[in-house]
Every structure is written in structure tokens, then in C-alpha cells.
What we know:
Elements: E1 22-23, H1 25-36, E2 43-48, E3 57-62, E4 65-67, E5 73-75, H2 76-85, E6 92-95, E7 98-101, E8 103-106, E9 109-114, E10 123-126, E11 129-130, H3 139-149, E12 157-161, H4 167-174, E13 179-184, H5 187-194, E14 207-211, H6 214-217, E15 226-231, H7 245-254, E16 255-264, H8 276-286, E17 290-294, E18 299-303
Amino acid sequence: xxxxxxxxxxxxxxxxxxxxxVLTSWIISRIVxxxxxxxxxxxxxxxxxLDLGLSVSRVAVSRDSVELPGGEALSVSELREWLDAxxxxxxxxxxxxxxxxxxxxxxxxxxxxRAVAPDTAPTLEINGIHMHRISGVxxxxxxxxxxRCARVRRGAKVLDxxxxxxxxxxxxxxxxxxxxxxxxxxxxxxxxxxxxxWSRKLADERVxxxxxxxxxxxxxxxxxxxxxxxxxxxxxxxxxxxxxxxFYGELFRVLRPGGVLFHYTGKTGHTRGVDVARGVARRxxxxxFEAVIVRRVLGVVARKPRGRP
Length: 309
């Protein structure tokens, strides 16, 4: 679709990774501990990750400071203060010799990048609610399970509804997708993603990021223009329109015959005896899909029958 968005072009969002070093309490603790063992004038080179586990860098540590790749330096005393102030899972970006928490307070909501374990992909938290499964699985493993359920293959064109940190789009490219169109309604989410090293490939030329309401943008997409759709909406109580029969009809329309949809449903409502996945599967069948609930990944896999327009 790149270069052929038509009226959707005005919703195109240019994703720009901040590409700043990011630290967690685990990394800060290692640096502070290394500095405490040094005498005045001594220096040590410590291997650490500054991109949440994607690579390893060597940082120059002295008793008073740590020099990051590119020449940026941080005060060890400041790092010690951060250790006392940092919250569980906080991610900090190094900007201009200072650390800043990757978080935004806007519109009555609080967004933050949350590390769930050392050296792995973080999740996005909005008002304390995490946007990925994190119990017994990492956010990246959660994403890979969704992409496998959608059966993304080499050359596939993928529609990703609800971008979040962009993991679905990035993992779809890794699975061989030729192009991904991803839709996100909240610019604050994309701003958080810009500081997340695991989100950087959202800037790939094979990804088109659209900023806007999916219920308005998906109806503007051409018929039968995608091989796969991955729909990963917020909980039904927060975005009921994304679970509606009308919206499912639009997803059916944009899928090619034989195309596959994966719809994440989560466990919302299970404590009240409400089976959200069953309702989702029923409405998907009503608009023409063949749908099967897949409990192990908390979602529904649906297929558009061949021969259907």
C-alpha cells in the first residue's frame, strides 16, 4: 500500500525511533556495583545491554561516572538516586546526560514502558493495565504465538489492528510478510514505542502506520486487500466497538478469500462467568467467517471461505 494510500494518506504516521540508550534497575544496579569496587582513577569496561537484551555494549565505568557508547556520560551518584526512586519495571532513557522515565501522563491516563524481566521485550502499561500476557510468557513470546495463529507466511500482506508497541507488525515482517498496515488510535502509545528498542522496526519501509480510529479507517481500505488480519484490541469493556458485528464485517471484507484472521480476546469477563471468546466467535460466524476458539493463546482463529467476495 505504500505510495497508494489514497484518502488514507492523511492518516499516515511517520514512526521515528528515538534510538536512545535505555536502562532498567537491573542494569543500573550492575553499573553502580561495578563503580563501587573501583578506586579513584580506575576504570573498568562492563558488558551490559542498553537496548533491553537485543545486543550487548561495553560501557566505561569509573568511580564517579559511566560513559555510554557515543560519548554520553551519566553520573554514578545520579544512578544511585534512581535506584532508590525507580519503580518496579521502570524503563529509563538516557537523554543529554540525564535519565528520563519512559512514561507519559496525558488526557487523564498514565502510559509507561514496563520491563517484565531482564533482557527481554517490555510491555506497555496504561493506567496500570499491561497490554501483553506476562504471566509465564514474555510479551515477545505472546506476540509470536499470535502471529503463528494468523499463519503469516512469506509474501503475505497483513493488517494489524491496534498497533500498541508494534510487536505484531515487527514479528509479521520476521515471518515473511511483504507489507504490514498497522492502525493505532493513540499518539501517546506511539510516542512510548519510539523509545522502545524492540519497536524500532516499525520504521521499516514495509510497514505503514496509520494514526486514527480503526472503526473509521478500516472501512476505507480496499476489498480483499489483505492475506492476514491480526486484531489485538483492548478489553471489550474499553473498546466494545472493536468487538462489534459491524466491525467484523469490515474485517471480513478486507480479507482475501482463504485469508486468516487472529482475534485476541484475553480473559476479560472470565471471573464473572462471561465467555468473551464465545461471543466473538459467534459474531465472526454471523458475518461469514469460519471461526475456532483457541484457548491456549486466549483468542479466536477465523478463516474467510474461498469463493466468498
